[in-house]
Amino acid sequence: MTLTAPLHPRVRAETGPDSEREGRYLTWLLAAFPLWWALGMGVLVIPFVAAVAAVKLLRRRSIAVPPSFGWWLLFLLAVVLSLANLSVDPPGTIPGNWFSQLPGATFRLGFYCCCTLIALWAYNLVVEGRYPKERLIRLLAWLFAVTVAGGLLGTFAGGFEYTSPVEALLPKAVAADGFVKSLVHPAAAQTMDFLGYETPRPAAPWGYTNTWGNNFAITGVWLVVAAFCLPLRTRWRLAATALLCVSLVPAVYSMNRGLWLGLAAIAVFAALRLLVSGRPGGMLALAGAGGAVILLIALTPLGTVVQARMDNGHSDDGRAFSSERATELVLAHSPVLGFGSTRKTLGSGESIAVGPTPECPRCGGRTLGGNGQLWQVLFAHGLAGTIAYLGFGLSVLWRYRSDHSAIGIAGSAVIGLSMVTMFFYNALVTPLLLTLFSYVLLAANRTAIPGTNTEKP
User: What is the structure's pLDDT at 301?
Assistant: First the structure.
């Protein structure tokens, strides 16, 4: 088995029943995600698909590698090397040892590798013509519909939750763990009270409100491509338009400022790319749609929700403290490889004596590296990991800056989104996988099989 450069655009597609069957695992991973969530598997199904991907890749005579993939491999190398520092206790953090820090570090490394294997396998399937780009785009668009449905459930039935089959099989002590529960316990929303009263914030089927918001933005990009840039009957385009309108309800009621900022960044990025590519009509259409959305929110009760959220910063002080403290510690004590994993602080920014209480369960004990992908990479994997991580994203954006097709703009928009949301969203697990799928589409679009209909805008 050898690693090869991206396949030539005229590479001969392999066809036949075996070719179609190989991609069914990828289809089931995405198409059946609501089922996995309902069963309590959720992200836990990803390692199973990754195992299939690993076997399929190992059986190949050669593996096509997308451009800029070397940066990502350097990042994974930094993640592995940083494990050596798990036993280091930075000043002002709760003491631990190498073994106590290992579970969290193993989780992150394992899922980084799982997402990488699945994305690399998907890239090979797509460039060989075994898995049509259109199918992957439509599956990502389907996940937007799933995200909106989960958002509506969380908005109007925020208390909905139940014990899943997987959760019921676990020992009670294991199932009661907060982190394990977030993986296996289906819940429609996370309930918070930062407005002075309890408010459900949509989370289904992604586990956390911030993950829901991140995936909403990523899959929303591909819904637009699937509905308006691929061959589709008029009734389905009308349905997609209606879905986008309805999606404003959970998007606003999620009170997710990171989502709002991310959507604005995507709109600006897409508008600039349309203008540069000589399509001012598309830019004006996008601006008109954005203006209609703002007007709709302003003239409905949704505007009141937005204003209430903007008046209540909630986590701003805690996030600022965690980011500053994480940066200070890693630069002072382990700048190259970081500390291998996250740590919890002793106290808070106000006092070392501050800790969680029944009235304030989130007080004190801030997680360093838990308030954004950038801070997690910097704290856990140091400057080596941070440079490689940023190098990957920026290299992809630069390499495909001239691809003004629908896939080129959409894929670049998702990569650019990850560069924006890394300041306040953690990427693992599903946002990273969806972002890597966007990278796969972007890279495969330049090595497309002749005869496909998604190469041109």
Answer: 74
Q: Find out whether 57 and 120 touch, Cβ atoms under 8 Å.
A: yes
Long-range interactions of 258-262: CB distance < 8 A, separation 24+: 258/210, 258/213, 258/214, 258/421, 258/424, 258/425, 259/213, 259/214, 259/216, 259/217, 260/306, 261/420, 261/421, 262/213, 262/214, 262/217, 262/417, 262/420, 262/421
Euclidean distance between CA atoms 77 and 71, whole angstroms: 10
Strand partners, 192: 199
Distance CA 435, CA 115 (A): 10
Domain residue spans in the chain? 2-444
CA distance 266 to 217: 8
Q: From CA 384, how far away is CA 378, in angstroms rounded?
A: 8
431-444 b/e (C-beta count within 10 Å ≥ 16 → b): bbbbbbbbbbbbbb
330-351 per-position pLDDT tens digit: 999 999 999 999 999 886 544 4
For the chain of 457 residues, list the mean pLDDT of each consecutive stretch of 10: 45 49 91 96 95 95 94 98 94 87 94 98 94 96 97 94 94 88 92 76 94 96 94 91 94 90 92 85 79 78 75 69 91 95 74 48 71 95 97 97 94 96 93 98 75 39
Pairing outcome for strands 189-192 and 62-64: unpaired
Rounded Cα distance between 41 and 90, Å, is: 35
Contact 134, 230 (CB under 8 A): yes
CA distance 437 to 246: 26
Please provide residue 2's backbone torsions phi and psi, each rounded to the nearest 5 degrees: -130, 155
Chain center to CA of 66:
20
* Stretch (H or E) spanning 190: strand 189-192
Beta-bridge partner residues of 368: 343
- 3-class secondary structure, 84: helix
